[in-house]
Amino acid sequence: KMLSVKNRLNRSLSYSLSSWFFIPQLGMNGYDLLSRSAAFVTPTRKQLQQSLHILTSAHVVHPFKFPHYYPEDWLRFVTEEDVLCFFEIRESQTGLLLHTFELDQKVRSHSYADISVLHFKNEEEVLSVIADEEKKAKNSIPFAIPLYSNDIPIDKLIVLSGTSVENSGTNEEKVTPLVIQGRTKASNGYRNFIETIDMISPMGMCGGPALMESVHEDDKDNVYAVGLVEGIVKKNLNKIKILMILLINMLIILLL
Predict the structure, then answer these.
(1) Residue 116 to residue 174: CA distance in whole angstroms
(2) Smallest Cα–Cα separation from 192: which of 231, 238, 146, 222?
(3) What is the SS3 assignment for 135?
(4) φ and ψ at 178, to 5 degrees?
(5) Among 24-33, 219-228, 229-238, the least confident range
(6) Most buried of 55, 174, 189, 198, CB within 10 angstroms?
(7) Alpha helices, H only, the chain
(8) Buried-exposed string 201-216: b where 16+ CB fall within 10 A, e elsewhere
(9) Which range among 28-32, 137-141, 188-192, 232-236 has the greatest average pLDDT?
(10) Is the pLDDT reported for residue 194 higher than 90?
(11) What does the pLDDT read at residue 244?
(12) 79-136 confidence digits (pLDDT tens)
């Protein structure tokens, strides 16, 4: 019998993304951490030079474009040319950093949605490492997750994969992979609202995939990304529950 998505994620590697900036004119001696988030990989749907896309939150890749999220005055001095992003492969239980890969500096972001697409600088190197790592993990989630672009049924079980980051940017920084289950509660056409089941979502889940088992009887072994975690909202003033806001794939496809 095939394991559930949650159990398969716990057997898989975990993925995160970090952005770093360096502006010598500000007296900096090297790159400093800008932001962190979850991220995931999906196959390209067109004949491109790359075979993989990396999807994540635009506010993490280029936080200086989101002054309503980040009011810090010094961010206005940061430009795209000052930023490097890295894709991180982590052990799923401990968050131990196993591999880091530099990404191409060219970033493609949606015109109004909080989502960016990036690519590996050396895709062959990444695929070689992943092939070695996946030999160690049976019944895991594939590295490149296909997209599901149809409507998602209400009350459908969705599994969210992301990270929890403590003491970001300090020597005590700790990145912990998280897997949270939820159910679809509503949709407004391009966002789905997911109510978490097993825990209230912490900050740090943004950029991670929302995963669903196939709805087709002959395709039960496959797992699809139905969207990207964009943010969190309160269910009520008592903060008893938190809903995840997701971008469904019809929006993601615009980037591919």
Answers:
(1) 24
(2) 231
(3) coil
(4) -130, 145
(5) 229-238
(6) 55
(7) 5-10, 58-61, 123-134, 249-253
(8) bbebbbbbbbbbbeee
(9) 28-32
(10) no
(11) 53
(12) 999 999 999 999 988 899 999 999 999 998 887 788 899 999 999 999 999 988 877 7
* Segment 40-86, tens digit of pLDDT: 999 887 666 678 999 999 999 999 999 888 888 888 889 999 999 99
Using only C-alpha atoms, the chain has a radius of gyration, in whole angstroms, of 18
Q: Are 90 and 97 in contact (CB under 8 A)?
A: yes
**Which of 36, 194, 50 lies closest to 117, judged by CA?**
50
The amino acid that residue 98 corresponds to is L
Half-sphere exposure of 22 (CA within 13 A, CB side): 5
Q: Token pair 């982590």 is at which residue? A: 90
Q: Distance between CA atoms of 17 and 35, rounded to whole angstroms?
A: 9
Distance, CA of 178 to CA of 107 (rounded, Å): 26
247, amino acid identity: L
- In order, the DSSP letters of 85-121 are EEEEEE-TTT--EEEEEEB-S--EE-SSSS-EEE-BS
Q: Exposed, middle or buried: residue 46 (CB in 10 Å: 0-12, 13-18, 19+)? A: exposed
Looking at residue 90, its pLDDT comes to 93
Question: What are the tokens at 230?
Answer: 């964009």
